[in-house]
Design a protein that fits this description.
8 helices; 241 residues; 0% strand; mainly alpha
C-alpha cells in the first residue's frame, strides 16, 4: 500500500536525502575563528623568530597576538551581527507597514513572484492567498525579501563565540613557544600548525559534505603563504647580528 503524505511530519519520515547547508552558519564561524587564530598567531611568531628575537620576546608577541586577534574577531563579529540584525529589523517593520496599508497589493506582489517561477496565475494567487492567511509577514519575508528567518543571534554571544574560537586555535602555538627549545622552534611550530590547519580544513569540509582534500589544501596553502611572508619580513628586519 502506498504511504500517504498529508503533513510535513509525514514528509519528514520519508525523507532520505541529507543536506548540509543548515550547518554552514555555525561551521563557518567556528572554522574561521580557529583558522584565523592559528594563521595570525603563527605568522607573527615565525616572523619574530626569523628576526632572531629571544624567547621572552617571542612569547610576548605570541600572547599579544592572541589577545589582540581575539578582541578584533569579537569586535568584528559584534558589529557584523548587530548591523545585519538592524537591517533585517528595518525590513521587517517596512513589510509590516506595507501589509497594514496595502494588503491586496502585497498579495498580488507575492503571487507575481510565484508566477515568475513558473506557477500559473490562478495557482499563484491561491498560494499567495493561503500563505498570507496563515502568516502574511513570514511569507513576504521569505519570498519577497529573501529572509528565511529574522536574524536572532545575540551580538554579545556571537562576539564571545568568535573570540573563543580564535583563542582555541591560537593558544596551541603560544603553548609551543613556551615549551619548545629555541633551536628549530620556528620549523616545529610551522609544521605542526600546517598539520592542524589541514586537519581543520578537512574536518570542516567533511561536516559540510565537500571534498576533504580540497578543504585541507585551501587552508594549508593560504596559511603557508602568510607564514612565508612574515618569515621573509622577519629575516629582512632581523635583529640578530
Amino acid at each position: 500500500m502506498t504511504n500517504q503524505i498529508n503533513t510535513p511530519e509525514d514528509l519528514n519520515k520519508h525523507l532520505v536525502t541529507e543536506h548540509y547547508s543548515h550547518r554552514m552558519g555555525w561551521l563557518r564561524a567556528a572554522v574561521l575563528g580557529a583558522n584565523d587564530g592559528i594563521i595570525s598567531v603563527v605568522s607573527l611568531i615565525v616572523g619574530v623568530i626569523a628576526a632572531g628575537a629571544e624567547r621572552e620576546y617571542i612569547l610576548l608577541v605570541a600572547i599579544a597576538a592572541l589577545a589582540a586577534g581575539a578582541m578584533a574577531m569579537a569586535a568584528g563579529e559584534y558589529v557584523s551581527v548587530s548591523s545585519q540584525s538592524d537591517t533585517e529589523q528595518a525590513d521587517l517593520e517596512i513589510e509590516k507597514k506595507s501589509l497594514e496599508d496595502n494588503w491586496d497589493t502585497e498579495k498580488h506582489e507575492l503571487a507575481l513572484i510565484y508566477m515568475e517561477r513558473g506557477v500559473s496565475k490562478e495557482t499563484a494567487l491561491q498560494v499567495a492567498h493561503e500563505l498570507m492567511e496563515h502568516d502574511a509577514l513570514d511569507a513576504h519575508l521569505k519570498d519577497e525579501i529573501g529572509l528565511s528567518e529574522v536574524h536572532s543571534a545575540n551580538p554579545i554571544q556571537a562576539a564571545f563565540a568568535s573570540a573563543v574560537s580564535f583563542i582555541t586555535g591560537g593558544i596551541i602555538p603560544v603553548i609551543l613557544v613556551a615549551v619548545l627549545p629555541l633551536e628549530n622552534m620556528g620549523i616545529v611550530i610551522t609544521i605542526s600548525s600546517l598539520v592542524l590547519l589541514g586537519t581543520l580544513g578537512a574536518l570542516s569540509a567533511w561536516v559540510g559534505g565537500a571534498s576533504k582534500l580540497k578543504g585541507a589544501l585551501r587552508v594549508v596553502i593560504w596559511g603557508s603563504i602568510a607564514m612565508a611572508i612574515t618569515t621573509w619580513v622577519g629575516m629582512i628586519f632581523g635583529v640578530a647580528g
